[in-house]
Protein 1
Amino acid sequence: MEEKLQRVTLWLKKIYGNRPVPQYEVNARTIDILYELVECNEARDRDVSLLIEDMKQKATEYEAEANYLEGLLAESLGLSLSSLSSKGTSYLSVLVDSAMTLETKDTSLASFFSAINDMTSELYATESKNREMELELSNLRKKLTAAVMLEKQLEEDLKKAEELLEVEKAKADSRSQNLKFLKNKSEDLKIRIKAAEEQLAATGLDQSLTHESLMSLSEKLAGLQEEIVPLKKKLESYLDLTPNPSLAQVKIEEVKRELVGLLRLVSHLFLIQKYKLTLPG
């Protein structure tokens, strides 16, 4: 910790020079952070120094090569930069700039042609890649348009579904209220029927005239009416026979009994209708 603090302090003094170092809280965390900054800064300074030295070395090499080429031109052709015309100097500058742009190793025609061929191939490859990217971009635009249209359609469908849901919810609420009303009404009618039956029972009403008894008698009447149908058919088969007093008397007695039963049922049905009319509500 002490070693880190000492190194950080020296680095801060070096950074700020004659200016005062800003106050900061000295603790393990701040010291660790500043120590990491010190190491990163010193590593960067070393990298910059190495880069500067490399550039200096390359500049020296380029200068030596330029001097060599200048001496070679002067010895073999008697040319120098000072002896060239302004047009020659301009051509030479264009040649140098072209060589640097094409990144050739020298200014020979072979190097220029090779570099131009390479750049032409790269240009064709780039144009082909651009066409592929344009086609892909067009496909993406079509897909995006389709996706936007689908999104709008889904939004409309969702809106319609929400509206339909609101309508169905309102209908369900209405049905629920109606069901609740009918349930309450049914309970009220049950209570009123029970009260009416108790009141009738208190007045000495025969139990056979209660609602349950009358409903049972009504069901029995329906059953008897169904039974009468085959009896009528059977009776019709005897109408064509020669009259026999004894048999006729038997049949008459049977018919009388059936008529008595029917009269009783009719009487009960009359009482049912009368009972319904006398019920409250």
Note: Residues 109-202 form the longest helix (94 residues).
Protein 2
Amino acid sequence: MLKATLEKWDRLTPHQRQSVDFTLPKWVITQTLVTICEENGLTMKHITELEMMHVIENPNQGTWYSFQLLDPEDDAHSVELMLFKEQFKTHLRELMRNVSIKIKKHTDEAVWIRIAWGSGFSRPNHLKPTYVVHYLQSPYVFVRNLTSKLKPLLMQSLTLSTRHQAIKDANLSGPKLMAIRDLLMKQYQQSFPTNDASPLAKENQPGPIVNEQAEARASRRRMASEAFGKGAVPQLQSAVYKLETKYRDPSNRTMTERDEPFRCVVKYSSSNILESFRHCASAGIASTPVTPLLSSILLKGRNYFVITDNAPAAASQTRQADL
């Protein structure tokens, strides 16, 4: 992947690119590239270009967190790239003195932002940049590598530069940026529920028992498709459910009379959690109709839920301290 990125970067001569042995260990390749860059007199600006190109071409690294912009102003739909770039940089630099910002528009209309944070007494740290992806004219923002200390600064700059009043956590995260983007922006084949069962071919049915089994299988497949769709689904890797409710058991007064709620967390993990849920429902491993707790991942575009006594499927508005 680095070899292809270096060719697009076009800061090294063909001879210099050919001199890099990509079969060697990573640290050796890194040292070779550092030496070549120093010989060419390249600066930090050039190196951040290379890193940004690599991240854009290979976005499925780290964990991306999603946010939703709220209450757009009347002119929010008219914000275009040049205006957004100018205002975002202006607002963020008013809040943080030493900060390095690089903004680039990708071919799929996504605006990529690379932010290296400093402080009042230190230069920007380019080794731990924050990446932000935003599609103009959409209310969604995707962020990677952002600490709780810097989060308010970024959120304020985003709301002001996009002409919105507020921003909230969308409670959807994962390592695959395109998957969470497709889920939030509904860029996948959706399925709509129907009360009519699919007709079954009745020819060559040996008896009522076989017919009943076939109807049950068809019903499971139909309900699984209604809950998770028929085609390819966004490739999420996890779904988290946090339980906060009162413990109820007449035989256990110690637990029942506690003021603190009973808490536990259930996390499902898979290479493709939605496809796994759909298969379990189709195969009869999971009961059908599919519980709203599972189908809400697609319906609400979230994979983090808090279950309480008053709101059975309410999404939590709190996240971890560090994103």
Note: The first helix runs from residue 2 to 9.
Protein 3
Amino acid sequence: MSENSQRASLAFGQVVIGPPGSGKTTYCHGMQEFMARIGRRVVVVNLDPANEVTPYQCAVDVSELITLPDVMENLKLGPNGGLIYCMEYLEANFDWLQEKLAAFRGHYYLFDCPGQVELYTHHNALKNVFAQLAKWNFRLAAVHLVDSHYCTDPGKFISVLCTSLSTMLHVELPHVNVLSKMDLIEQYGKLAFNLDYYTEVLDLSYLVDHLASDPFFRNYRRLNEKLVEVIEDYSLVSFVPLNVQDKESMRRVMQAVDKANGYSFGDQEHRSLEALMSAAVGADFHFTSTLAVQEKYVRSQDKAVEEEVMDM
């Protein structure tokens, strides 16, 4: 097979994973619209059998094969056991999935996955589905969404870091961790550190010291120290902040994923992206740091302090 024909047979995409409520379906909808605006042919594949209502146009829907309510009713399983059964059933019916996906060759794929964390940290069914897709010449990157409000609680953030690391090691795909719902982070209180401390996962000893000031966590300091040591020893976890309503934020996430899965876009798409971004934020939009989000956050905090002073 020639290099050009092999390249033509490749399919690129994202598997969108993360805990319940992290914004996976909203992300798929927003990314589908964003990519369509720049001329990328994109389809969404719903792999969540519990997802009864999808805001996006769904090309392939696992509910045609199996649904969680049916499994729970017929097999008398709870939602967690039901989801595991559904993924094992999907794994046993690769031929159905292959036939459905074959109809959309030449497209970019967004796989909207279930929200059960155990599927990405312990169980092998979904991992085996991803491995089978790789055998079918899919070049995938895992986009792991985490709700940004966990940054406001140091204990929960350490838990998120452990879950993200475990997921990266278990899923075995190029990985992009995303802090979702950045537009809502201001509602959850003031961050203990600057935003880039959380996105870059800088020296976590400061986080342990901050936790030690809480009487509840003081007795668990040694445990927290060992947890952050594991995270820092692997040195794999970092985050890209995302506000799905902001085009610049969507562009940064898309480019991080394109780098992870090896996708390279053509000149036409590049021109379309430049035109879209120029219309959104002006001609000069070449910045990749979290500075814009951080400045907005700091301004909101300063405004809140000023209002408190005025009320005194």
Note: Residues 291-311 form the longest helix (21 residues).
